[in-house]
Amino acid sequence: MLGHRYTHTFLETAVASLNAGCNLELSYGMRNNVFTHIPKALAMGNITLQMLRDRVRPLFYTRMRLGEFDPPAMNPYSALDLSVVQSPEHRNLSLEAAVKSFVLLKNIQGTLPLRAQDLSSQHLAVVGPFADNPRVLFGDYAPVPEPQYIYTPRRGLETLGANVSFAAGCSRPRCRWYSREEVVRVAGAADVVVVCLGTGVDVETEAKDRSDLSLPGHQLKLLQDAVQ
Fold first, then answer.
1. Beta-carbon neighbour count of residue 38 at 10 Å?
2. Is residue 95 assigned to a domain?
3. Three-state DSSP class for 208?
4. Is residue 58 in a domain?
5. How many domains are there within the chain?
């Protein structure tokens, strides 16, 4: 509200938010916490005690439903330890979710899926800034998995026994410096070319938006060179 100049002070913002039905704040620490001004708003008569109770009630009802006030022995999650974190069972479930989330826009001449039994006789090229860079594969607010569990496109294809060549073309998603020669050399000698492009948190994330939907930097040129 302050950023859009709808209000001019934290006190005004707290009052306007409560009047609009907002009962939860995502703040940047105590210094920039708007709702710490609620007691002052109450003392000044800007809000009523009944309104404050109405806003607080669903918060505590939700916390009760989540079991936050139950004895630890009643909470099934209290028996969990770190052995379940990234356990085989959970990683297999994540793999299943990833496989089921793919969207295939085109499949001209039945190119996909690539069949593992056919790959040993083919030469694959994996190109692009997302082909073998684990750091750029995860979006905003993503967890940080153990490195041994991260499979880049290049690493994943290599596990299938394929003859894989790799060229990033540009080391970062912004792709400001592009090596056309290495992409053309690797792609030109391959039977199948896998091009890995995108944005990543280097280009867009919370509070960092793009001005258009174009591929960043020279990524479009990279794609065109690989296709050609």
1. 20
2. no
3. strand
4. yes
5. 2
